[in-house]
Amino acid sequence: EHHCIMAQRLFYPTLRNSLRCFGTTPGWQTEAVAVPQAPSAPLILNETSEIDKNVAEVAREAWIETLDPSGENLHVGLIHLHPKVFATYPRLDIIHENVVWQQKYRMVNTSHTKLRSEVRGGGRKPWPQKGTGRARHGSIRSPLWKGGGVVHGPRAFTTQFYMLSFGKRIMGLTSTLSAKFAQDDLKIVENLDMPSDEAGFLEKLCEDRCWGPSVLFVDDCDLMPRNITVATDTINHINLMPVYGLNVYSMLKHNTVVLTVSASQCIEERILHHLNKPDYHLINCAKCYNK
Amino acid sequence: QDEVMTSSGTEKALSLLRRLPRVSIGNLGPNPGAHNEKRRGRGIYGGKTHGAGSGGSGQRQNFMRVGYETGNTPFYLRFSYQTYYKGHHLKLSYTPLCMGKLQMMIDTNRLRCDVPVDVTQLMATGLFSISPQQKEGGFMLENEGIDHFKATINIEVQWANEAVIASVERNGGFITTAYFDPLSLTAAIKPVEFFGRGIAIPRRMLPPQHLIDYYSDPKNRGYLADPAEVARERFLLAQKYGYELPDVNASPNKDILLERKDPRQIFFGLEPGWVVNLKDKVILKPTDPELKEHFAS
């Protein structure tokens, strides 16, 4: 039994890679032919990340589903997710900071007020310094006057750009992934191959599985299979995203986040790389975790 | 498999989340006290003042110069010097590196042993920070852990005592003490940044007067000492501490162990005068005979 699982582990990745170009064929059917066991046996992906292997915490398990409902099993296999990426403490305040940052960094304020030098007029001294019983003034556009210039008012095209520290951005991703996974809003799918390219088909599929109205599909490669691309084209609340576009705001905006197996492995590898690299002290990561 | 659950805090938080509403953009907020709502002071009554009080010279920001003591000789002028810091600008301090820590770095693969270990390699571990501007000279090896030091390495540091030298040589390794002047040290500790500046690799300067004796002494394995005398001292030290000096010719890492830098060289494999272009992956070497003569001297 042990070497059968080993055989699966050896066969599965190579076949997966070779079938990547042909998006329409459901991969698991061909995979069933190669594996000596019965096709209904679940595939257990026990591969732990190369980077952070010796972790005392228990790995989280998730079903590997398929977008093809015609097969006998909804669940094709089981995947182990690294706890430091998918089961960290969900820092809601850091998630909030990330969301605020994503919204604000691209903001440019266009509100504008005039200074006393910019307001029309006000060059002449309104009345002599002494003699009239009135207060002394030099210009009718000084900030003291009605209609005068504004001293510390907004000035047009003030950028709100700032960069959140790298550690906080990493922590935002891990917290969001952990929160989504804890709330059953993170699904793992073996690939994005669908048998039909109709929008109705995909909507029915999502409804049947109680995936929230808005769904975010995340894949490793930015060239997605044809069927799902056509199906999601007209639906605005179901979106496709490559791994490099993964961000906290999008994950929270969509009710359900669906990762492909390769996408989840890519995310794990990248995040664990950044969490374990030796020059982390230069990127504020440690400071962030000690908070 | 020895697996324990995640820390109880995380477990509790994640299980709590399962019962709470979905985390969404409309649900989130900052931690209490994160956003400081400062109100701008306005006039004499509204809000806080701007730190100047009301009325008088203070509000008009008429301050005397810093240190002025209303006429008498101020403190900072009374004493023109203090003897306790005499020569502070000449004295170097070194980052201590225990032998135990060195062994741990090698065991955990944090420090590469397949190349000669020098300041650049030690800084590449990311565990130390050296600032040459603050009169720091480099690394010094400490005695802690010499008894269980087991690695065979070719190491170059800035200061080492006899016991440390013995512990390195006992395992078949080689130790050299070398001086780096501040500019060369800045280049050595952050080579990529240095190459990015696009200037020629400088010649390493010789040690100052009070240090030249140390680096010329074969007992300290100084880089300016005669290699023959260094070899003799190796033999004598082995006799003193009572270990058999391993034959370097028999070891498989002979080339790595016998690699030494020229006294004017900063990086292994790179000579002074060369310009390293990392972007185009090209090294530019001087062709002018005067320049060549200058850098080769």
UniProtKB/TrEMBL annotation, chain A:
One of its GO terms (cellular component) is ribonucleoprotein complex. Residues 115-138 are annotated as: Disordered. Keywords: Mitochondrion, Ribonucleoprotein, Ribosomal protein. InterPro entries: Ribosomal_uL4 (IPR002136), Ribosomal_uL4-like (IPR013005), Ribosomal_uL4_dom_sf (IPR023574). Its main location: mitochondrion. It is found in: Mitochondrion. It holds the Pfam family Ribosomal_L4. GO terms for molecular function: structural constituent of ribosome. The keyword Magnesium does not apply. GO terms for biological process: translation. The keyword Ribonucleoprotein applies. Belongs to the universal ribosomal protein uL4 family. This is Large ribosomal subunit protein uL4m. It comes from Cherax quadricarinatus. The lineage of its organism: Eukaryota, Metazoa, Ecdysozoa, Arthropoda, Crustacea.
From TrEMBL, chain B:
Residues 99-175 form the Large ribosomal subunit protein uL15/eL18 domain. One of its GO terms (biological process) is translation. Residues 43-58 have a biased composition (Gly residues). Keywords: Ribonucleoprotein, Ribosomal protein. GO terms for molecular function: structural constituent of ribosome. It holds the Pfam family Ribosomal_L27A. Residues 26-60 are annotated as: Disordered. InterPro entries: Ribosomal_uL15/eL18, Ribosomal_uL15/eL18_sf, Ribosomal_uL15_bac-type. GO terms for cellular component: mitochondrial large ribosomal subunit. Belongs to the universal ribosomal protein uL15 family. This is Large ribosomal subunit protein uL15m. It comes from Cherax quadricarinatus (Australian red claw crayfish).
